[in-house]
């Protein structure tokens, strides 16, 4: 199909934006289109398979049946991108304020100096000692806090130093295990990083490289100030961050089309009026940024100068990118005929790629998650199917979905939610060492990892209550395991085969609970296990181009968002922050407002590179 040449620039009121999915990534794109782009709310169309907004963060269950805290409790480490988003969502309770103000108020920070106060709090918190790892010794549990005991020996220090000073391009598709010895993987430094982000030795060296540059120099800062104000408020992160954003958009009149699945995106050749130089080269850098331009929606049709990045990435022998446009979206409303949504050249289409939740398999306290769902080709959800379709159409520009959705052995983790009617305090006391004379400071929420346990289990004890309907006497804990395919010591089964009760039994045994106490806790507990075969898919080794750019070269009305796009210098281990940042970059680029943040982004990348020279923790 060939579209008519573009004759005049479109203005905000004429533009329609189509956003696939209603997870936090897509919602943040909608907020920025509304607040920064000034698109009429009714021109923002969100097409979502499910019947509600929130995607992977929506939880389910109750105190009677047991909660399933879906997107769990790994540290979020939300930062500037999330703050920018929440500052644009008005408070539901305080007129004239934002959700960001509400969060700061909840954590006792004043909005004007919140950043400074937050840093002070984090500083104080990182000066306290707080259990982060639990190791076993013949004397019982050893509680290790990041400040004191995650030091590196000389050999490991040298390995880390050498690794950090490699260029990312040299690392290619290599794995973390290609650069470090066995000793490194047995140590606490690796223990903290791997359990905080879900890294395994087989994962991407390039992603680990980015994570080390960002966090590697100060692990205590990374984890001992958990939770942080931007990671959630009174209840869980969905209730505090995602639900108010969705309600705001709905109240503004954004067009949510639930129970509607998008199966294909149709492209057309772009009009001849596009200057040849912009179509033959990738017109954006990997952050989708462009030089300063007027605040005009027509800017998407202007000639964009080639930047350094695209010059570098374009090999002399490479064919030029043919200029294209999204011309239609194929949607399937539930129980209705297929629809073809026509997309004009000046419209915007934002596609969220891939999904960590795809193929998740839920068990119960008395049943293990069904295993048949965990096969590579089973239960690929709409998100992957669509990306696979796009990969087939244009692998050079739209990435390689196969790289991320088929290696379940390497991307699979298992999570579990424990609903405790009694015994929660015993578990917290056991973790912190209360009553033993060696108690470490209790934080307002704990994240600890049992790194000697066969499954390598991490436990998150969030501030209670986690859910609005949670009764006062009930506590909810969340956990996940890095190696669910290994056999437990007490239950003598792989975690994948275990019921919720068996998982909790193994965890309690690893925490050194004796039989009677263990039985008492088990009686008052409901544990819901969930195998998530692609939870760590974003950490799999990847080659250049496997992750597409936020704005694919020479496709002027398409933005790609989510955890699987490439944002130079940023690490996807801060999953939500990364996705929100990508959505902001896509929107700003497509509406021609990226210039303001351009310099700042470049500064951030440079700063993160400089950190490789900071001293590493030493023995
Ligand atoms: C067990 C688990 C624990 C996690 N813990 C954390 C954590 O601690 N910290 C963190 O930052 N992140 C965590 N994550 C990741 C977290 O879920 C993501 O950061 C966040 O949900 C990503 O949001 P998203 O909008 O990109 O994708 P999703 O939340 O997956 O939303 C995508 C939405 O798009 C819809 N959709 C997809 N394809 C189509 C289509 N073709 N047509 C129509 N609709 C479509 C889906 O139905 C879904 O609603 C966790 C994930 C899992 C699985």
Task: Provide a short characterization of the protein structure.
One of its GO terms (biological process) is fatty acid metabolic process. By secondary structure, the chain is of the alpha/beta class.
Global mean pLDDT:
83
Strand content: 15-25%
Helix/sheet category: alpha/beta
Distance between the termini: 65 Å
What can be said about the biggest beta sheet? 8 strands, mixed
Q: Helix count?
A: 23
Helical proportion? Answer: 25-40%
CATH class category of the domain at 12-51 and 258-353 and 548-611: Alpha Beta
pLDDT under 50 segments (min length 5)?
1-8, 273-314
CATH architecture of the domain at 12-51 and 258-353 and 548-611: 3-Layer(bba) Sandwich
Shape: globular
Which molecules are bound besides the chains? flavin-adenine dinucleotide
Number of strands: 18
Rg computed from alpha carbons, rounded to a whole number of angstroms: 24 Å
CATH topology of the domain at 12-51 and 258-353 and 548-611: FAD/NAD(P)-binding domain
Task: Please describe what this structure looks like.
The protein has 619 residues and is of the alpha/beta class. Among the domains are: 12-51 and 258-353 and 548-611, 3-Layer(bba) Sandwich (FAD/NAD(P)-binding domain), CATH 3.50.50; 150-217, no CATH class. It is 33% helix and 16% strand. The protein has an eight-stranded mixed β-sheet, with helices on both faces. The chain has a five-stranded parallel β-sheet with strand order 7-2-1-11-18, covered by helices on one side. It has a three-stranded antiparallel β-sheet with strand order 8-9-10. Strand 14 and strand 15 form a beta hairpin. The radius of gyration is 24 Å and the shape is globular. The protein starts with 16 loop residues before the first strand and ends in a 9-residue tail after the last helix. It binds flavin-adenine dinucleotide. It comes from Aspergillus saccharolyticus JOP 1030-1. One of its GO terms (molecular function) is FAD binding. One of its GO terms (biological process) is fatty acid metabolic process. Residues 303-315 have a biased composition (Basic and acidic residues).
């Amino acid at each position: 199909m060939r579209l008519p040449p573009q004759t005049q620039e479109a203005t905000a009121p004429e533009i329609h934006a189509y956003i696939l999915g209603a997870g936090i990534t897509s919602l943040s794109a909608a907020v920025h289109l509304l607040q920064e782009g000034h698109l009429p709310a009714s021109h923002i169309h969100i097409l979502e398979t499910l019947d509600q907004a929130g995607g992977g963060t929506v939880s389910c269950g109750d105190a009677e049946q047991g909660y399933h805290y879906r997107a769990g409790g790994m540290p979020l480490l939300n930062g500037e991108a999330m703050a920018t988003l929440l500052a644009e969502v008005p408070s539901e309770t305080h007129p004239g304020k934002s959700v960001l103000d509400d969060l700061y108020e909840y954590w006792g920070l004043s909005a004007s100096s919140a950043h400074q106060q937050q840093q002070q709090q984090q500083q104080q918190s990182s000066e306290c000692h707080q259990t982060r790892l639990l190791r076993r010794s013949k004397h019982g549990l050893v509680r290790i806090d990041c400040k004191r005991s995650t030091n590196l020996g000389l050999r490991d220090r040298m390995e880390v130093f050498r690794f950090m000073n490699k260029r990312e391009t040299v690392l290619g598709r290599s794995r973390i295990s290609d650069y470090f010895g066995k000793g490194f993987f047995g140590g606490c430094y690796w223990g903290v990083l791997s359990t905080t982000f879900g890294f395994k030795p087989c994962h991407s060296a390039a992603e680990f490289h980015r994570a080390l540059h960002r966090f590697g120099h100060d692990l205590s800062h990374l984890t001992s100030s958990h939770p942080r104000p931007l990671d959630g408020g009174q209840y869980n992160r969905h209730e505090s961050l995602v639900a108010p954003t969705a309600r705001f958009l709905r109240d503004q009149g954004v067009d949510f089309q639930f129970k509607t699945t998008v199966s294909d995106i149709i492209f057309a050749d772009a009009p001849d009026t596009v200057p040849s130089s912009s179509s033959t080269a990738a017109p954006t850098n990997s952050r989708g940024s462009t030089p300063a331009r007027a605040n005009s929606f027509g800017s998407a049709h202007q000639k964009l100068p080639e930047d350094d990045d695209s010059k570098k990435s374009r090999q002399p022998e490479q064919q030029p990118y043919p200029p294209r446009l999204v011309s239609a979206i194929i949607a399937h409303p539930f129980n209705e005929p297929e629809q073809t949504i026509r997309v004009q050249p000046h419209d915007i289409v934002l596609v969220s790629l891939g999904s960590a939740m795809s193929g998740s398999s839920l068990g119960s306290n008395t049943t293990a998650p069904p295993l048949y769902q965990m096969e590579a080709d089973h239960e690929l959800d709409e998100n992957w199917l669509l990306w696979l379709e796009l990969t087939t159409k244009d692998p050079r520009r739209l990435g390689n979905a196969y790289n991320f959705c088929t290696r379940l052995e390497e991307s699979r983790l298992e999570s579990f939610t424990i609903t405790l009617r009694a015994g929660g305090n015993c578990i917290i006391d056991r973790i912190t060492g209360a009553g033993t004379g060696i108690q470490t400071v209790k934080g307002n929420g704990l994240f600890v990892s049992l790194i000697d346990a066969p499954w390598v289990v991490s436990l998150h004890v969030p501030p209670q209550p986690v859910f609005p309907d949670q009764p006062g006497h009930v506590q909810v804990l969340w956990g996940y395991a890095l190696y669910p395919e290994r056999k437990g010591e007490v239950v003598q089964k792989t975690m994948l085969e275990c019921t919720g009760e068996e998982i909790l039994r193994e965890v309690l045994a690893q925490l050194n609970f004796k039989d009677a106490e263990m039985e008492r806790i088990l009686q008052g507990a409901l544990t819901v296990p969930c195998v998530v075969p692609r939870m760590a898919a974003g950490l799999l080794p990847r080659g250049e181009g496997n992750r597409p750019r936020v704005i694919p070269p020479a496709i002027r009305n398409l933005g790609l968002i989510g955890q699987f796009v490439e944002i130079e210098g940023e690490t996807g281990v801060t999953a939500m922050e990364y996705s929100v940042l990508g959505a902001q970059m896509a929107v700003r680029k497509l509406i021609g407002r990226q210039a303001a943040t351009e310099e700042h982004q470049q500064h951030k990348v440079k700063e993160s590179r400089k950190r490789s020279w900071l001293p590493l923790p030493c023995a």
